[in-house]
Specification:
There is one protein chain. The protein has about 250 residues and is α+β, with helices and mostly antiparallel strands. It has one domain (about 15-245): Ribosomal Protein S5, domain 2, CATH 3.30.230.70. The protein has helices at about 50-55, 80-85, 90-105, 130-150, 180-185, 215-245, and strands spanning about 15-20, 30-35, 35-45, 60-70, 115-125, 165-170, 175, 190-195, 200-210. A 5-stranded mixed β-sheet has the order 1-2-3-5-4.
Length: about 250
């Protein structure tokens, strides 16, 4: 099988790394790298819940996410949302996806009267910023939850599973895993697949870019995504094992 521009096989992830405690003032934080894509994922615990929950008598805590691309994350400077007066549609979409992915694996009743804020800030963008954000956001959330447990602010882990995300796509006649920007830019079809550690799907986003795809190609792309997500889940587990053991 011929290699890609960066030397990978079609079914190979980019080099994945997780650097803990990148934001010391957060309750949990990780710098996640999918190749040249780098995202700071931080989880901060706020000891209160949104007003709407109190007004509607909703029990438990809440989890919400925000996402941004820093001005220097791309080749051409990206204007900050605040300078435009509002977030653009892509930003809103991605932060909603991150929030949905994390809320799918948390028992909010066990979070107590706390809000878990997830902030994902892209330092460098080379494709897959949303998938890297989701993958790193889970790790930041798990570290933040452990801090709550250690401080006896909650009695047990409210996270019911892990979650990760990866992209897949069709470029020419090739099915590719974990697309870098040059591949994502030219792909005829691209998908983002979000899955739990136990193999349950949270979300599958996909479309043809002025192209179509068959049912067989759909199945094959999802299977390729599953392969990558199992590898990501193993990397997450290994990272958390080291971090939690280090806490004693």
């Amino acid at each position: 099988m011929s290699t890609r521009a960066d030397g990978r096989r079609a079914d190979q992830l980019r080099p994945i790394t997780f650097e803990p405690n990148i934001a010391p003032h957060a309750s949990g934080s990780v710098l996640v790298s999918f190749g040249s894509t780098k995202v700071i994922c931080a989880a901060t615990v706020e000891p209160k819940v949104p007003l709407w929950m109190k007004q509607q008598g909703v029990r438990g805590g809440w989890l919400t996410a925000e996402y941004s691309m820093l001005p220097y994350s791309t080749l051409d400077r990206k204007q900050r949302d605040i300078s435009k007066g509002k977030a653009d549609g892509r930003t809103i979409e991605i932060q909603r996806v991150i929030g949905r992915a994390l809320r799918a694996i948390i028992n909010l009743d066990k979070l107590g009267d706390n809000t878990l804020w997830i902030d994902c800030d892209v330092l460098q963008a080379d494709g897959g910023t949303r998938t890297a954000s989701i993958t790193g956001a889970y790790l930041a959330a798990r570290l933040a939850v452990q801090k709550l447990i250690d401080e006896k602010r909650i009695s047990e882990n409210p996270l019911t599973d892990s979650v990760a995300a990866v992209s897949v796509g069709l470029l020419g006649d090739r099915e590719l895993l974990d697309l870098a920007y040059v591949e994502d830019r030219d792909a005829q079809v691209d998908f983002n697949v979000v899955m739990t550690g136990r193999g349950q799907f949270v979300e599958v986003q996909g479309s043809g870019e002025e192209s179509t795809f068959s049912y067989e190609q759909l199945q094959s792309l999802i299977a390729l995504g599953q392969k990558g997500l199992k590898e990501l889940s193993s990397l997450q587990t290994a990272f958390l094992t080291r971090q939690l053991l280090a806490r004693g």
